[in-house]
Amino acid sequence: MPVDSLMNFANGLGDSADRLIANNFDIGVLRPWIGSDGRNYVQRTEFNPKTGKFEKRVMVTNAPATLPRLAWYEFDNAVVKALQNQLNLITSIRSRGLVYNIPNAMAHTVLQYQKQYDTTPATIGMDPIRRGESDRPTTDYANFPLPIAWKDFDFSAREVLVSRNGNMPFDTTMAELAGIKVAEELEGLGAGAVGPFSFGGGTIYGLINFPQRVTKTDMVVPDGTNNQAIINAILAIRQSLLNNKHRGPFVFYVNKQWSQWLDADFNPNTNNSTTLRQRILAIDDIKDIITLDLLPNTQYNCVLQETQVQSVRVVVGMEVQTIQWESLGGMAKHYKVMAMLLTQLRPDTAGNSGTAHMRTA
After folding, report:
1. How far apart are CA 311 and CA 172, in angstroms?
2. What span, in angstroms and rounded, lies between the C-alpha atoms of 37 and 122?
3. Distance between CA 157 and CA 194 in Å, rounded?
């Protein structure tokens, strides 16, 4: 399932890309539905000068519609459900308010942002009449690519007609599977299992391939009897983040190997019912432990991530969408599930990050 640039995406849609461009990349033009009156409609997003806001507006269209609005709801529900079950990393970051929204992101290929570097120290003394050292932070610009993840599926015109007759409802399995594949690509990119992805002079890195991350590659292999050594390793790597002025709060992301040990007794030789999970969460400012299916399931890969906007955020260019176009004179109906939900890891002004990656040797 590809992650590619906006240019390749537009080329893949053919004539539909012209419709997108003509409508300022409003995805609504590729989601026509048949109303109860038999007419075709789309929902457009337009700027209302009276309110100063972008507002939804339902409009009659000449675009060929093949699905009633209820079918679009069924597709969307299947896709959203699939993404919710897969996007553990992205959801956990967004739930903490670490989000940067890009309006009309389809019209942009990169996000340009500023990188500032530190200034010299302040002056301390008994009388501020003496002029201190005056300077200003050095500012540089960096690019963050804005790729789209997508997956296609198709129906024939006959399948559409059969579903309209009520003989056979639309099977949303393909829409759900497409949503899962899109989620896996976006989640894998954020975790570092996919990529890195480079475009336009910028690169998207994930948790385990971010160049500025703190690393520890000699963690003991968990076996249920060495839990204190694991706690000591977590405390050591947290200290590295604290030394770099990243004070939390933190989320501890783990791969699936950890599942058999996290909820086992911390000390199985006593009557203490504390589990390893409870002991980790007792560490100051570690707020949650989340299993990421897309972290490599080897070497007990795990990441301690600071959840502050200066360390990580989700760039939201497009929520999950399902769009439609046709070919072969209308005999083939094509659908595309796509989204632009990108994890951006951000180093601070000194080049240090709030990301710490641990694994066994």
Report:
1. 38
2. 71
3. 36
| Coil/strand/helix, residue 145 | strand
pTM over 0.85: no
Q: Which two tokens stand for residue 298?
A: 């080897």
The β-bridge relationship of strands 148-156 and 202-204 is unpaired
The separation between CA 103 and the C-alpha centre of its own chain, rounded to angstroms, equals 16
Pairing of strands 3-4, 148-156: antiparallel
How far is it, in rounded angstroms, from Cα 16 to Cα 11? 9
Contact 345, 207 (CB under 8 A): yes
Report the Cα 143 to chain-centroid distance in Å.
17
pLDDT at 6: 39
Q: Where are the beta strands (DSSP E) in 210-280?
A: 214-219, 250-254
Range 257-261 contact pairs with CB under 8 angstroms and sequence separation of 24 or more: 257/222, 257/297, 257/298, 257/300, 257/301, 258/222, 258/291, 258/300, 258/302, 259/291, 261/222, 261/223, 261/224, 261/227
CA distance 346 to 115: 10
Assess whether the previous peptide bond of 137 is cis (omega < 30° from 0): no
pLDDT tens string 152-202: 888 766 666 565 555 445 567 788 888 899 999 999 999 999 989 999 999
Listed as ranges, residues in the chain with pLDDT below 50 are 1-14, 167-168
Helices 69-86, 173-191: axis angle to 10 degrees equals 30
CA angle 333, 336, 337 (to 5 degrees): 145
Spell out the domains of the chain, with CATH numbers in brackets: 3-111+142-205+313-344 (3.30.2400.20), 214-311+349-360 (3.30.2320.10)
- In Å, what is the CA distance from 195 to each residue of 93, 109, 190, 276? 20, 17, 9, 32
CA gap 17, 20 in Å, rounded: 5
Q: Enumerate the β-bridge partners of residue 357.
A: 215, 303
Tell me, what's the pLDDT at 161? 58
pLDDT attached to residue 132: 73
